[in-house]
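Sequence only, no structure available. Ideas?
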Amino acid sequence: MGLSLGEKNFIKGGIAQDIRTDGRKRLTYRPVSVETGVIPQASGSARVKMGATDVIASVKAELGKPNASHPDKGRVSIYVDCSPTAEPTFEGRGGEELSIELSTALQRCLLGGKSGAGAGIDLSSLSIVEGKVCWDIYIDGLVVSSDGNLLDALGAAIKAALSNTAIPKVEVAANASSDEQPEVDVSDEEFLQFDTIGIPVIITLTKVGRHYIVDATAEEESQMSSAVSISVNRQGRICGLTKRGGAGLDPSIILDMISVAKHVSEQLIDKLDSEIAAAEACDEEL
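Reply:
I predicted one. Tokens follow.
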């Protein structure tokens, strides 16, 4: 960030005293705004702003064939693009590496990693005919402007985009034999709303000095020793956890972070719910 020693000490000293440079406390988010239906050609989309961090998520649903290892489930893939216009460091390999890091972290936090254990998105709900037909959900995230806490913002945008997603109703031909690929009729008029009740929010706790904060700005992130991102659903269950930064953390600190994340997640879920509802109401009026 090119900060002077005085600026670094000012950031750390403020966090230690629970007064951050923008006046927030350690566990307070910046203003959050949500806009839905921002990409008309997508099955669902949303734009989320957290302070000066601005991200877009879009969802596309296509018919596919389930994996042989999970014949009763659909598939979800997540990809993030860090636009070079959002941040000069996103030019070239810097942007590519961050895109992969964010995509992998979102996969772990929302889909429970490779095992699928603890997935916030119910993949079995995407199955149409076991072993034959399922929905493939493609989620694309775009970083428009970066001022820290990208993972939480992208997680919120994906949750909002999925709540905006309508999946066409599918009728399966009744006369197809069990060996044949069944014929399906995709409705142009009837749609099913994507169930987002189990989709978690992501709470990233960034450790600066001896304390950790939520919704860190880019300047604050430049002073971090490590960060732990915890996805928590509406029931307070942990759906995923990922860590970045070289410094190790004592298990007792991790447990404390999880406790804090559960508490903070309630506020973020309530805020997102009201923002999503307001955005959807706005869309219906247009």
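The CA atoms of residues 118 and 239 lie 5 Å apart.
Hope that gets you unstuck.
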